[in-house]
Amino acid sequence: MAMRPQPREMPENMTRRQRRDNWWRYHWLQVLIGVLAVIVLAGAAWERFTRERYDCSVALVTRYAATPAEIASIQEALERVCPDMDGDGEVHVAINAIQIDYTSTDLDDAAIQTMVTNVDKLNADFYTRQSGIFLLDDPENFQASHEALSRMDGAAPPEGALDWENMTIPWKDWAGSNQVELDNCEADRLWFARRAVFDKADEAAFRGAGALWAAIFGTE
Predict the structure, then answer these.
(1) Mean pLDDT of the 190-211 span
(2) Which of 41, 54, 59, 216 has its CA nearest to residue 126?
(3) Half-sphere exposure of 207 (CA within 13 A, CB side)
(4) What confidence score (pLDDT) does residue 16 get?
(5) Domain regions of the chain by residue span
(6) Helix, strand, coil abundance in the chain, percent, nearest 5
(7) Nearest by Cα to 136 from 38, 61, 217, 30
(8) Which of 12, 37, 99, 154 has its CA 20 to 30 A from that of 166?
(9) How does pLDDT run across 33-48, given as a tens digit for each residue?
(10) The domain at 54-217 falls in which architecture?
(11) Cα–Cα distance, 182 to 65 (Å, whole number)
């Protein structure tokens, strides 16, 4: 078994710099591990803190990239009706904008890289249970690809259910949609949908989404 090198005994006549260099020679790895651990913990704490600022998160999954103005307009409209879930006196709705074209077949290298990046972004949203509500311009292929949508009452459909028409509500059916200025997103091809709930962890994560859905459509 390899033996870990031990610090040399430092002669009494070593300078302060020599003593410091000797210490770093044998302890740099422990210091590096400690710094990395602090970074990881700080990142986790930062993510938790920033996510808790939002009362609800909505994933906007569209063929064309939504403009910052569109995202802000959708966010402001939803925040007008979203309940204050954390009781801090303010309402914040996160919009996770993700550009995915499920029908494209002729893509160049840059477009493929963008697609891969955005699919990873959507998978991260799924994995972390970030968004309980979706805004989709291609719910048919979205459901065929992910089977992530619920029935209108929030119940999870059986495996293989692709009847997206029974899982979505047209954007224009929401009274607040007329307050939103859309550009790249087409109002006639945009649908609301809910994330399917399969267990208690899902129920807890999507409590804010259920409250927002009820505020928008007047039903749980």
Answers:
(1) 93
(2) 59
(3) 10
(4) 64
(5) 16-52, 54-217
(6) 50, 10, 40
(7) 61
(8) 99
(9) 777 666 656 555 555 5
(10) 3-Layer(aba) Sandwich (3.40)
(11) 12
